[in-house]
Write a structure and sequence with these properties.
alpha/beta, Rossmann fold, 30% helix, globular
């Protein structure tokens, strides 16, 4: 191997938290390996592959980052959509093409946040994707969460419940997907947004992001499944009124919390299409991605 290739693989090993290419790693595929079961997804010929995760783990971003790398190495053009503020996407794109990307990225969606969306694992995944781009592989990124501007917010305001937010997410991903001829758009998002059926909350029905995204192209949505472990998230402290409109930072307990999983499979990550969870005959998810035991990833910036 030449020195540039070795440097790239070592850096990717750090970014994706696994062994360098060609090395053995118990319980995890090497970075840039396609996970078992991906061939079943490819046969469905989706444009969008949505990964509904539990925020705040090391393993969720690692899985998606490694998959993006594997596809890019096969010369597939990949767009990775992350659940960061869409209003800052233009700034993110400028940083993506700047020499000091790491410094700029630290201030975009990571500074001052204590939840799992701003985790070190998310930061490392994004840095790993940028490294792929810098090495010449066809990888892009987009921040899609929330309204990109007041005009979009006003246009979607008449949708019920959480509908405006979900519709904006879908629009922002779809708009970015039209910038180039992408082979795959990989979307890493919280599980609720990844559902493909209408959601009812407090008597109000709305369509989640993945359901709305399907109007722009074929969507395959996968739910994270995992073994026991921990995840970094913010939970209400005991005695806090969840309906209060005067929530204070001190009402939240942000940290590594136990997360009960299942013992259905072994430690090796893979994708499955056997998901049977459905509503009125319509699948909530098309399948799942199994990531084994999970571990909490703290915020990039404490």
């Amino acid at each position: 191997m030449n020195k540039l290739f070795l440097a790239l693989t070592s850096a990717l090993a750090l970014a994706f938290g696994t062994a360098a290419w060609g090395e053995e790693s118990a319980g995890a595929a090497a970075p840039c390996d396609l996970p078992a079961g991906w061939s079943d997804i490819a046969k469905l010929d989706p444009h969008f592959v949505v990964f509904g995760e539990l925020h705040g783990t090391n393993e969720g971003p690692r899985f998606v980052g490694s998959l993006a790398c594997a596809l890019a190495r096969q010369n597939k053009r990949v767009l990775v959509a992350i659940e960061h503020d869409a209003s800052e996407n233009a700034t993110l794109q400028a940083a993506w093409n700047a020499d000091d990307f790491e410094e700029k990225l630290a201030m975009l969606g990571f500074a001052g946040r204590s939840d799992g969306v701003a985790s070190k694992a998310m930061f490392d995944m994004t840095m790993g994707l940028h490294l792929l781009k810098e090495s010449g592989l066809p990888v892009d990124i987009v921040a899609f969460n929330g309204f990109r501007d007041e005009r979009q917010q006003s246009r979607l305001a008449n949708l019920p419940g959480q509908g405006p937010h979900e519709a904006a997410q879908a629009e922002n991903i779809a708009t970015a997907s039209m910038a180039h001829s992408y082979d795959y758009v990989l979307v890493l998002v919280g599980k609720l947004h990844a559902q493909k059926t209408t959601i009812s909350q407090h008597g109000i029905e709305f369509d989640p992001m993945a359901r709305r995204l399907s109007q722009f192209g074929r969507v395959v949505s996968l739910k994270m499944r995992h073994a026991d472990g921990t995840a970094w998230n913010c939970q209400l402290k005991p005695g806090t009124d969840p309906t209060s409109t005067a929530m204070r930072p001190e009402d939240l307990d942000c940290g590594a919390h136990p997360s009960k999983g299942e013992q259905a499979f072994g430690p090796d990550p893979f994708i499955g299409l056997e998901e049977a969870d459905d509503v009125d005959g319509a699948p909530v998810f098309d399948g799942f991605f199994w990531i084994g035991p999970i571990s909490a990833s703290p915020p990039r910036t404490p």
